[in-house]
Specification:
The protein contains three helices and three strands; from the N terminus they run αβαββα. It is of the alpha+beta class and 80 residues long. The chain has one domain. Strands 1-3-2 form a three-stranded mixed beta sheet. Strand 2 and strand 3 form a beta hairpin. The radius of gyration is 13 Å and the shape is globular. It starts with 8 loop residues before the first helix and ends with a helix. The mean pLDDT is 93.
Length: 80
């Protein structure tokens, strides 16, 4: 399925698996940072900068590529 980067409530209701990719511009994040960032970005997928749904046998796989903008937004919300 082509990436359309749009949040889709219908597909979202059928998500069976989640994947997280990391933008190369992020450099070396610690495993601890990657863990909480991945969890946080998947809690609000509509706000993710790069979102894709891949069809699977049982539903959809939500794939988010975490970008610098996502990290900045999540750190602001955590600190602020």
């Amino acid at each position: 399925m082509a990436a359309d980067n749009n949040f889709d409530p219908r597909r979202e209701s059928l998500v069976m698996e989640m994947r997280t990719n990391w933008d190369p511009g992020l450099g070396n994040l610690s495993d601890t940072d990657k863990e909480w960032l991945s969890q946080a970005v998947h809690e609000q997928p509509a706000k993710a900068a790069k979102l894709d749904y891949e069809r699977s046998h049982t539903g959809f796989v939500r794939e988010i590529t975490v970008t610098v903008a996502d990290v900045e937004r999540l750190y602001r919300s955590r600190v602020g």
